[in-house]
Amino acid sequence: MIEFQNVSFAYDKGSPVIRDLSFRVEDGQSVGLIGANGAGKSTVMKLLLGLLTGEGKILVDGLEVRKENLFQIRRKLGFVLQNSDNQMFMPTVYEDMIFAPLNYGLSRPEAEARVDRALGLLGLEELKHRHNHKLSGGEKRMAAIATILAMEPEAILMDEPTAALDPYNRRIVINIIRGLSQTKIITSHDLDMILDTCDRVILLSHGELVADGPADAILRDKALLERNRMELPLRFSGK
What we know:
The chain is of the alpha/beta class. It contains ten helices and ten strands. The strands form two sheets. The protein has a six-stranded mixed beta sheet with strand order 6-7-8-3-9-10, with helices on both faces. Strands 2-1-4-5 form a four-stranded antiparallel beta sheet, covered by helices on one side.
């Protein structure tokens, strides 16, 4: 469903941040995109959403990521930002959730049905009319996921979805992610969360793909991770 074909990108005339990157994510896969700071993870997400334009080709469900296709592509992709405050900009959860469906041309009854389906799927009905500024960090993160699900995207992109959460809310978010049927690409330094939610891992270093395979195999490879300035998940470290 998602494919990068020899993609490169540089923010200026200096060295590329992404270098000849190629990979394919099939429908329904859950993929962890990992790497040390500066590896290029966030840039990959921005290229996929059409926020940046590089060399090479990016396809989403057969559509090339370019200006004339962005409206269709962004209907297929839901992006959960690392900071939920940057995503939840309306007064209430309901108003945030219904905003995108209405702007995509759905009638209000259709949009409201999507809101209720998303809240029901996540068991968050009690948040529907809550004010965003009164939500806890975990509640806001879950509401942000619900907002994306109300769009009914075919794929969900998540940037550090468990960052800054306490252990209780972290576990709730992990369980929510595991229950989603959509294609998922998740960037995170939380490798235990990646192990819990992803069946495949793509490891980037300095914008290049250095490993791509089963999550369990890559995240057990201490030498590989250490060569790329990362550590084993706590589950495998013996700590």
